[in-house]
Amino acid sequence: MYHWLRDHRRKKILTEPFPLVWRTILGEKVRHYSFLNADEKHRLEQLLQVFVAEKTFIGCNGLEMVDEIRVVIAADACMLILGLPHNLYGKLETILVYPSTVVVPPPKAGVFTQSPLFERSETPISGQAFINGPVILVWDEVKRESRHPETGHNVVYHEFAHYLDMLDGRADGTPELRSREQYRMWAEVFAAEFLALRRKLKAGEKTFFDSYGATNEAEFFAVATEYFFDQPVKMQKNHKALYDVLAGFYQQDTAERERRSRKNSHGGV
Ligand SMILES: [Zn+2]
Question: 148 CA distance to ligand 1 centroid (A)?
Answer without folding.
Answer: 19
